[in-house]
Amino acid sequence: MILAFRAAGGRDSGPSPENLLSREAPGFSLSTLDGRQVSLSDFRGEKNVLLFFNEGYGCDPCWQQTAQLQKDQQAFADMGVDVYAVMVDQASLIKNEMARWGLTTIPILVDSTTNVSKSYDALGGMHANKPDHQFILIGKDGVVRWSQNYPSMSVGSDQVVQQVRSVAQP
């Protein structure tokens, strides 16, 4: 089962997340804050990947959501899902916010060019040059299985876990 949800009044241009559903996810290679390269191809045939695109620096709800994803990492791991937050801010700003929120184990990918965020239609919302509050689940086969934009900047972690559980490949 592949699910898509889109809030009314969503983005008007570019590939919508709905258009990505059931299609091969755009490839990417981004650095974590510790300099490790993470590529979508690393997971092919091995793991599902949940990307959480968000505004990052200056968005407390985004950091609250990231903190909750960190707490839920074991639930995702039990489903064979690796979780990554994707932010476009400078690494130094992200590191400051991580310390502020006590985040130590959730990997954050830095999309400094915004190219990956653009390819997943995650830019827009409140700020044209920053991601909104969007989740994209990519199956082990490299296909987008679920996409959800939460323009309210908030979603219960149980909802995210439940949605991922319903569409993640075993």
Write the layout of secondary structure elements.
Blueprint: E1 3-5, H1 17-20, E2 29-32, E3 37-39, E4 48-53, H2 60-71, H3 73-78, E5 81-87, H4 91-101, E6 108-110, H5 115-119, E7 123-124, E8 127-131, E9 134-138, E10 144-149, H6 157-167
Parallel strand pairs: 1-10, 4-5, 5-6
Antiparallel strand pairs: 2-3, 2-6, 4-9, 7-8, 9-10
Brief descriptors of the model:
170 residues, alpha/beta, Glutaredoxin, 6 helices, 10 strands
Model description:
It contains six helices and ten strands. It is α/β, with parallel strands linked by helices and 170 residues long. It has a single domain, classed as Glutaredoxin (3-Layer(aba) Sandwich). The strands form two sheets. The chain has an eight-stranded mixed β-sheet with strand order 1-10-9-4-5-6-2-3. The longest helix has 12 residues.
Strand share of the residues?
A: 25-35%
Number of domains: 1
- CATH class equals Alpha Beta
The main sheet orders its strands as 1-10-9-4-5-6-2-3
So, the CATH homologous superfamily? Glutaredoxin
Molecular shape = globular
Helices, by number, come to 6
Give a brief outline of the structure:
By secondary structure, the protein is an alpha/beta fold. It has helices spanning 17-20, 60-71, 73-78, 91-101, 115-119, 157-167, and strands at 3-5, 29-32, 37-39, 48-53, 81-87, 108-110, 123-124, 127-131, 134-138, 144-149. An 8-stranded mixed β-sheet has the order 1-10-9-4-5-6-2-3.
